[in-house]
## 1
Amino acid sequence: MIAGASQADFAVLVIDASTGNFESGLKGQTKEHALLVRSMGVQRIVIAVNKLDMVQWSKDRFDEIQQQVNAFLTTAGFQSKNLSFIPCSGLTGDNIAKRAEDPQASWYTGPILIEQLEASEPTQRALDKPLRLTIADVFRGGVQNPLSISGRLESGSLQVGDRILAMPATETATIKSIDVDFEPADWAVAGQNVALHLADIDAKYLRSGDVICPPSAPIKNITSFTVKILAFDHITPMQIEVHRGRLHVPGKVKELVAVLDKATGEVTGKKRPRVLQPGSLARVVVEVDTAVPLEAPGRVVLRAGGETVAAGLLE
């Protein structure tokens, strides 16, 4: 979930509209997934209100769900203008790939799901920044391409023949060939999903979660960093896991520096609090057990006990 969200431009949140299931989901997975995608920088969500045919395409039920979900998502940091609600049925495909023909659904005249997805505006890419690619997978492509990696270009560009640096191993490699969306290409730019077929490097220096960068502008390996977080649970100096895309490493919240004002980001209240309350914005210091390639303004998610407890931006 975290790895997928870190590569997404926008998200589709599927909600079960059937009686009882929506209410339980909003307290469980629906809430967790919405917080995760917002934490990873996703700003736009299309909400597919599914199984509405099971409640006879009730407009009252749709309006109730839209009101509750909109209130929760805006509280989580989404803007109402970036939220789209579509009543649909996954079983019949109504309002997904084709408009519902049931007379009970005639009250909805907005775009169907596929139309809404195709109308989404592309995200601006960081083309002018140094190359950064977080490795999603390491694999062997066959005799011609004995070692390959895949991932999404977060910034910059690359082309066949480039020398690249793998961090944290600090080992260089040469790009033999490139696939963009499974098609051969001579180059790739930020925002594209790529497979790089490499030479001059051993597989032991490449792992999921590692970062590819240019030797001239390497990302630093760090063991401690300051991060501005939004707390989803009570936070104290505690053991946590740090997640960023495929990267996850154990560590701890070493210090609670200050609580911040949500509107201005300025320090408010007393410094060095003993505990952070859910919903509070704060600056904390995190230490990880092993050096990892991270840099500002990278987004990280903090998890403990199998749950997301906070997320935020490196400073």
Note: The chain has a mean pLDDT of 88.
## 2
Amino acid sequence: MSLIQILVGALLALLVSGLPANSVSSNGSPAATTPRLVRIFTATIHLGEFSPPIPIPSGQRIVAKVNNGQLNGQGLNGTIQGGLSVVDIIGNGQAIVNNVRSYGTTSDGIPFLIDESGIGSQTDDFARLVLSIGGKYAHLAAQFLFTEASLSSDRKTVSTTGYLTLDR
């Protein structure tokens, strides 16, 4: 089993486990429940040029400008106006740590900031998404959101799906 499979498996286990405060098993210990995942958007993100690799102790770091993008879905629609992606490639490339900060406006004009931090391979990753937003979308800022993303083979476009976790 590769390092990336182990890391993604561990991340998924963390994402789908939960311990509601009022849930107790038959032996009196907390009972685990699995949250329901609700897709709230898909996104297409267009990247600019990548920096040359920057040496870091664990491997190399690559920086790319987020040029623009679109969010579409029943929970959130809008335009990504810009941002920055910083990717740490660990060791020989078996794993990456991805940090993205992007900004834009919803289809009805409300500004937002997205902070995304995750782990994966050089083509796919899972990330925790923190959304700073107000207005009728303010409830999303207090929710546990995560994404799964794939980088196109030409390294110019990222396709992302955003999920909201809800108690069953």
Note: Residues 97 and 119 are 5 Å apart (CA to CA).
## 3
Amino acid sequence: MPSTRYALRSNPKEEEQVQPFRFLSLPPELRLRIYRLLLKRNEPISISHINHGNSTGTDVVVETRGNTTTARRPTPLPPPSTDPLDTSILGVSKLLHHEGRPVLYSENTFTVHTGSAIRSLNALHQRSRSLIQHVSLSIPSYYDILDEFPDIVRLGLRYCWGLKTLVITLPFTMPDDDLQSTCSRRSVFANAFHIIRWLPKQTKVRLDGIVPKDIAAVVDKHMIENRVIDEVSAIHILEPMYLN
């Protein structure tokens, strides 16, 4: 007669009775670690890859400047990460989506690209956009300062209500001013950066790359104004406490 141990192993019905792993029975701190393994990366992540898969941004964009109309391809997206995110866990249940979404959007740094930034940000639900805290934007040419950058801020980044840091990279040299012109071309590009006043007040803007002094001055001016507003607001909050 076969032993009980052998009989249990040879019973196919009992072998099929595999108990599911009860993920929600784990302590919250362990679930958080798993979310971070799946949804957080140390290097910046292209938000276009999250929203549009492996889109290469090859649609032709038609531009008109004065009497000249040109067609160009938008800035190509960087290749997907060798360690891509696995966001499938967010679709398992509402509870897992509620727990994991803050890890994905608040703990990563996202890169946005001219030509796709507005589409990528608008594809997100506002609850997800409002969780984004860190964004990196590279402006590939000085023409994009006038054509793309204002709309990216006004139509996209302004709705990232939790945005804390925005790093803007300028990897190009600005054109020299025309001495015969009454209006400095560099001042025109610098004035375009006044659009950052539309960003959430707590956002700290940092410039990287080849940064002209007049553009840096505009950004510094707005950062100082925001600090003053924060200090005045703090005083107004504390005044009733001292009066009582």
Note: The first helix runs from residue 4 to 9.
